[in-house]
């Protein structure tokens, strides 16, 4: 909540009905636009009029209309509400993506050429090869594309502009198993269940909790 006063700046810009005319007004308005998204991320119902009043009083150096104790209680209440709302959303996402991931894995398991290992990892050989295979302590150079099952791509070596280099056992659990199945030069598609990927925490901003992740990997070389 230390950032609350700054987050409230967007309401001050909103008080100007006309388009900003001076550099100061434009700068203030742009700050307000940027900070509006931060207010929304609080996921708390606010009274705009009271919010504006609190902002003005603070910026103008006026005494607060609430006691220090009341301000502390309000900040704690907002913080608790925000945490509860986020937990509800995370729990809902975990249930949603856990179910959709299970459905995907069940359907994918029946696809031609798909193999399911004892751990639950699923793979399909897209391009076979007869090169060397990495071990658990190897470092590998590879191209990859990552998507959430039933969703959008969230990462790729192409988007980073170069192949990735990683220790076989340094990534998610599913990768440690996946790389050791591959030969240099091969391309595999892996369906990685959540317990072998990012679990019930997910990867904030990219992978929802309990999501199954699809990786298409081309193993380029075993690094020296």
TrEMBL record:
Pfam families: FKBP_C (PF00254), FKBP_N (PF01346)
GO function terms (MF aspect): peptidyl-prolyl cis-trans isomerase activity
Catalytic activity: [protein]-peptidylproline (omega=180) = [protein]-peptidylproline (omega=0)
Sequence intervals crossing the membrane: none
PPIase FKBP-type domain mapped to chain residues: 137-223
Keywords noted in UniProt: Isomerase, Rotamase, Signal
Any one of the GO BP annotations: protein folding
Keyword Isomerase (UniProt): yes
Primary enzyme class: isomerase
PROSITE patterns, sorted: FKBP_PPIASE (PS50059)
Signal peptide: 1-17
Lineage: superkingdom: Bacteria
InterPro entries: PPIase_dom_sf, PPIase_FKBP_dom, PPIase_FKBP_N, PPIase_FKBP_N_sf
EC number in record: 5.2.1.8
Family: Belongs to the FKBP-type PPIase family.
Record's protein name: Peptidyl-prolyl cis-trans isomerase
Lineage: Bacteria, Pseudomonadati, Myxococcota, Myxococcia, Myxococcales
């Amino acid at each position: 909540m230390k950032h609350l006063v700054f987050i409230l700046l967007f309401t001050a810009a909103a008080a100007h009905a006309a388009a900003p005319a001076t550099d100061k007004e434009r700068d203030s308005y742009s700050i307000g636009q940027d900070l509006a998204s931060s207010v929304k991320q609080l996921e708390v119902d606010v009274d705009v009029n009271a919010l504006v009043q609190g902002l003005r009083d603070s910026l103008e150096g006026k005494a607060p209309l609430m006691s220090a104790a009341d301000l502390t209680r309000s900040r704690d209440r907002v913080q608790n509400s925000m945490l509860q709302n986020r937990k509800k959303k995370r729990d809902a996402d975990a249930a949603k993506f856990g179910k959709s991931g299970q459905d995907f894995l069940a359907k994918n398991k029946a696809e031609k050429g798909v193999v399911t290992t004892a751990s639950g990892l699923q793979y399909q050989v897209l391009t076979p090869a007869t090169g060397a295979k990495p071990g658990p302590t190897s470092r590998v150079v590879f191209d990859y594309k990552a998507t959430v099952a039933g969703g959008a791509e969230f990462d790729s070596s192409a988007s980073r502009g170069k192949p990735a280099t990683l220790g076989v056992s340094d990534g998610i659990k599913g990768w440690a198993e996946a790389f050791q199945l591959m030969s240099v030069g091969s391309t595999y598609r892996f369906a990685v269940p959540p317990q072998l990927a990012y679990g019930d925490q997910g990867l904030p901003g990219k992978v929802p909790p309990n999501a199954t992740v699809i990786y298409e990997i081309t193993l380029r070389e075993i690094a020296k």
